[in-house]
Amino acid sequence: MSYIKETIEKLKQTSPAQVEFYQAVEDVLESIEPLLEERPKYREHSIIERLVEPERQIMFRVPWMDDDGNIQVNKGYRIEFNSALGPYKGGLRFHPSVNAGIIKFLGFEQIFKNALTGLPIGGGKGGANFNPKGKSDAEIMRFCQSFMSELYRHIGPNTDVPAGDIGVGSREIGYLFGQYKRLANRFDGVLTGKSLLWGGSHARKEATGYGAVYFAQCMMDDKGDSLEGKRCLISGSGNVAIYAMEKLYDLGARPISCSDSSGTIYHEQGIDLDLVKRIKEEQKGRLEEYLETHNNAEYTPRDDYPKDGHSVWRYKADLAFPCATQNELTAKDAQSLLENGCKCIVEGANMPSTQAAVDLFIESGAAYGPGKAANAGGVATSQLEMVQNASMLRWDFDEVDEKLKGIMSNIYHDAKRTAEDFGHPSNLVLGANIAGFRKVADAMIEQGVV
């Protein structure tokens, strides 16, 4: 049995039933095999064995009272995975699907994503199996206060700086920060994604979506092409999807789809972005409401999706941006995209493509931007928010956006250059994984056995 397979098998024994975590680890470790052969020092220092185990795993109950006076209990997590490059940095996810395996996969991915930004931040992730949908503001506030009553003792501006993720937007960040401030008696930059009124950064809400499009722009530039006039499929309708669509329109492309947990909208003339923003950001509604003003659009309910994938990927387009959640794009979806002429796939979500789908993209020669590289714009701008907090300054939108664009360009060229060095110039999965791993592994060696 190879060293990599042996490591993964041991992981399955020590961390049972964490399928997404195994998938994330396998993706990285199989990619870096050429590096391990070239640099035996990484094996000598047991970097792999240390890297796949979090430095700290915090799990706690979150009791809170609903509006009817009933006590509810959820499970909270914070996985502080690796601090070799700086304070732990990564979002909080509030969603019923959250469990230890999901948080560990997200935290593991975050290590390399954060390393690729070139900024001094380590990797972590957290959340709870709490569903904000259908809850009143008062219930969400009570839950957030209970969650932070445990978390506050483990975080700090130079220790661990959480941000938002699925189910954690500006409202939740506000309630979390307010409770942290009450308990710690400090006004720290301990959370990012804050309101502009009290320490937030311009462009943070837009950053992940914008960043994915900037990454796509780099990929198109390398092919001597541009985004102008390109039809783009988008999944999701949260911040990432909405602001990817916004930037695509800015650059002359045409987003023609989006989705939520209930179904998919396809609008060949181009998605009405103002309407989607109104439905999702203001009314917190469902995308099927889109048809009330656009009866020429198509809506596919989730129950009518193909059994082997997601209906959003079955339309013809030039580019695809999976921006919803993990493993949403299957091998059959990938096959449909390629058959329908899609030449570029850029991941706005974390690990949205199954391994079988990724293999098809790479084998086909399509331009494929993996999530840990393409969606790093959010965490990069979070770190820019940390810098502004530490210096008690605020940069304007254009300054932050320009820095974001530069960071995404650097990530792309770092991954591409590394892929070329290892003889696979079009394989950005290999390039991103090796580039991120080297930075973390070298720092770990320099810091000793810790």
From TrEMBL:
Q: Which residues form the Glutamate/phenylalanine/leucine/valine/L-tryptophan dehydrogenase C-terminal domain?
A: 201-448
Keyword Nucleotide-binding listed: yes
Q: Which UniProt keywords apply?
A: NAD, Nucleotide-binding, Oxidoreductase
Question: Which Pfam family name is an example for this entry?
Answer: ELFV_dehydrog_N
Q: Name one GO biological process term.
A: glutamate biosynthetic process
List the residues marked with site Important for catalysis: 165
Binding of NAD(+): at which residues?
208, 239
Q: Which reaction does it catalyse?
A: L-glutamate + NADP(+) + H2O = 2-oxoglutarate + NH4(+) + NADPH + H(+)
Q: Quote one Gene Ontology molecular function term.
A: nucleotide binding
Describe the subunit structure. Answer: Homohexamer.
What's the protein here called? Glutamate dehydrogenase
